[in-house]
Amino acid sequence: MTLDRTSKYMISDDVNWAYRLYDRIVMMVQSTNRNLKILIGFLIVLTHAPWAEAKPWEFLAKEDGVTIWTRNVPGSDIDAVKGETIIDAPIEKLVWVVTTCYRRTEWVEYLRKCDIIEMNKSNRFVAYQAFDMPWPVSDRDFILKGRVYSDNKGAVRIDVASGKDKRGPRTIGVRASVHYGTYAIFPLGPNRCRVIVETHTEPNGIFPDWLTNHLQKDWPLKTLAGLKKQVKRSFVKKAELPSNIEKVHSN
Q1: How far apart, in Å, are the Cα atoms of 198 and each of 97, 110, 177, 242, 246?
Q2: pLDDT tens digit sequence for 159-212
Q3: Do 62 and 117 reside in the same domain of the chain?
Q4: Whole-number Cα distances in Å, 245 to 110, 149, 228, 248
Q5: Cis before residue 136, ω within 30 degrees of 0?
Q6: Looking at the DSSP assignment, which residues form a beta bridge with residue 146?
Q7: Is residue 239 part of a domain?
Q8: How distant, in Å, are the alpha carbons of 5, 13, 23, 94 from that of 8?
Q9: Helix (H, G, I), strand (E, B) or coil at 10
C-alpha cells in the first residue's frame, strides 16, 4: 500500500501507478503545448475557411406558399435558413420594398430602427438595424455592409454581412452577427417573381444555440409574408434596378 501525495487516505499500488501515468501524460502535453496550440489553431482555421464543404439544404416545411430549408454550417452550431416563394408583383416594386430602409420597420418582425449610414454610386451600402426583442431576450442590433446588383436577365440580389463602422451607434443590447444574408429576386413575368431569402445569423450573448435554431425556422415564412403584404401597399414605388451587372444566383 502507498500513501496518496495529496491526502492521508490509503490507496492501492494500481491507483498509484495511474497517478504516475497521469504525471507522464501531463509532462508530455506541457512539453508540446506550443505545437498543440498551433495545431488546434490550424484546425479551427480549416473548419471556418470559405472552402470548407457546404452541407446540403434539408427540406423543413412548406406553409402558405413558402418552402423552407435549413442546413448545417461547418464550424458553427447555428444553422443557416432559406425560404422561397412566388410573389405577384413587379421586380422593381419588390426591390424598392427591400431596399427602402426607413420603411422596413413596417414589415420586418421586431425591427424598430433601420438607418442607412452610407450608400455609394456602386450600390454598396452600410446600414444600422436595431431589433426590439420580446422579454426576456435582450435587444439586438447590427452594423451591416451590403451591395445590390443585377444580371443581364433582370434578376436582382441584395447581399449583406456584419461589419464594423465607427459611424454606427453604440449597441442597444447585444451586437449580433450576420455571417451572410441574401434576397434574390428572379422575374417570371412583368408582375410575377420568384423570391429567395437566406441567412446565417448568430444572436450572440447568452442565448442557447438550440433555441436559436428552433426559433429562426420561422424567419423565412414571416419575412416573405411581410414582403408580400408590404409590396401591395399604395405608396410602394418602382425602384430603378442596379446597373452593375453580375451573375445572380441562389445558393
Answers
A1: 17, 18, 14, 21, 19
A2: 999 999 999 999 999 999 999 999 999 999 999 999 999 999 988 887 778 878
A3: yes
A4: 33, 6, 26, 9
A5: yes
A6: 125, 160
A7: no
A8: 8, 15, 20, 77
A9: strand
